[in-house]
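Please decode residue identities from the backbone states below.
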């Protein structure tokens, strides 16, 4: 029976993972091999045109660093041969501020790597959509308010950006549909006390525009962020009535995905005590520095190396990475991680492999 709060099946598995589709890589990892990542998050630009209330990377001070084109091309050329399957342009700033964003997306796709983009969409104008959408598996727009006034407050941006983003989304959907591109176009809404009342207004606008989904996710602060966490006493588990009210906007071509599982996980202890998922991912910032994941970005002691100074293969197979990974495995306290990180579901999955329960042959 379907959970009445699920708002329908989430075919994108946003609250889950997709590692079970990579059986050979998981099997190789279980045998103790040094595997290459399946997924890499890449920061194309260090600066940002917004100053969101919840920004995870505010501690990096929004340096206007541009990832060098040569470094990225060298990385992609090698990574595609080593088994990297996907790249998300996100990172510590706004990716579309990199003047080569469109070209780099095309290059990665030509090297058989699936590419996605996380953006505030202020710069996703018609010219960019015409060129970039055909090379993207999906695009996720960060849009965290239902009015221009609240948008300006939450995003730390001009109120006029709200209208511009909606117009850019409308244009992107029309271009996607006209050309029959396969790119999924969605919006991510980070739920905080300041925008609780905005969801219905935004959902109505997005459904009219024709985006594929509105994903509503919880706030989980980065351990290095200058931002404060949620106020004391705020519990996502108390918002179930809000989920029910929002569900009415879902339809055949538009889904409201309320990430309830991620919200409830914030209020429980993790069932694992080590991060087992790190071999399957990597994070490259706009300087070209390679990190285990975004939790460690900016911390020199956890930097594997730099793709502008060494090949990705030398970095990934090198002794420095091995030492850092041993350090994380043997002494890192996962309480120093985000409460609801990208690897949580993967860690739960892998933990069962390493720590099976009883009667496993009774499938």
């Amino acid at each position: 029976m379907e959970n009445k709060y699920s708002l329908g099946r989430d075919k994108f598995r946003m609250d889950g993972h997709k590692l079970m589709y990579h059986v050979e890589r998981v099997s190789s990892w279980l045998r103790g091999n040094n595997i290459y990542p399946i997924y890499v998050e890449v920061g194309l630009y260090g600066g940002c045109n917004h100053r969101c209330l919840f920004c995870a990377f505010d501690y990096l001070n929004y340096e206007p660093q541009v990832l060098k084109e040569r470094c990225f091309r060298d990385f992609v050329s090698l990574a595609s041969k080593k088994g990297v399957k996907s790249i998300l342009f996100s990172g510590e700033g706004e990716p579309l501020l990199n003047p080569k964003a469109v070209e780099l997306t095309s290059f990665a796709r030509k090297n058989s790597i699936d590419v996605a983009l996380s953006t505030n969409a202020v710069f996703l104008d018609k010219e960019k959509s015409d060129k970039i959408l055909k090379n993207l598996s999906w695009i996720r727009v960060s849009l965290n308010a239902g009015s221009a006034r609240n948008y300006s407050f939450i995003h730390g941006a001009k109120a006029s950006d709200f209208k511009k983003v909606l117009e850019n989304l409308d244009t992107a959907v029309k271009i996607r549909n006209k050309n029959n591109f396969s790119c999924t176009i969605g919006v991510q809404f980070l739920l905080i006390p300041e925008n609780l009342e905005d969801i219905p207004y935004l959902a109505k606008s997005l459904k009219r525009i024709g985006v594929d989904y509105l994903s509503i996710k919880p706030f989980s602060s980065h351990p290095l962020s200058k931002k404060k966490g949620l106020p004391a006493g705020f519990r996502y588990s108390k918002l179930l009535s809000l989920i029910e009210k929002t569900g009415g906007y879902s339809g055949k071509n538009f889904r409201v995905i309320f990430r309830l599982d991620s919200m409830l996980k914030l209020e429980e202890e993790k069932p694992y005590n080590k991060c087992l998922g790190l071999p399957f991912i990597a994070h490259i910032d706009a300087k070209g520095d390679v990190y285990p994941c975004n939790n460690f970005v900016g911390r020199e002691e956890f930097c594997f190396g730099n793709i502008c100074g060494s090949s990705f293969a030398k970095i990934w197979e090198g002794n420095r990475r091995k030492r850092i990974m041993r350090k994380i495995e043997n002494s890192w306290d996962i309480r120093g991680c985000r409460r609801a990180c990208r690897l949580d579901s993967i860690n739960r999955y892998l933990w069962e492999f390493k720590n099976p329960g009883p009667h496993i042959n009774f499938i």
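Observation: The CA atoms of residues 44 and 71 lie 11 Å apart.
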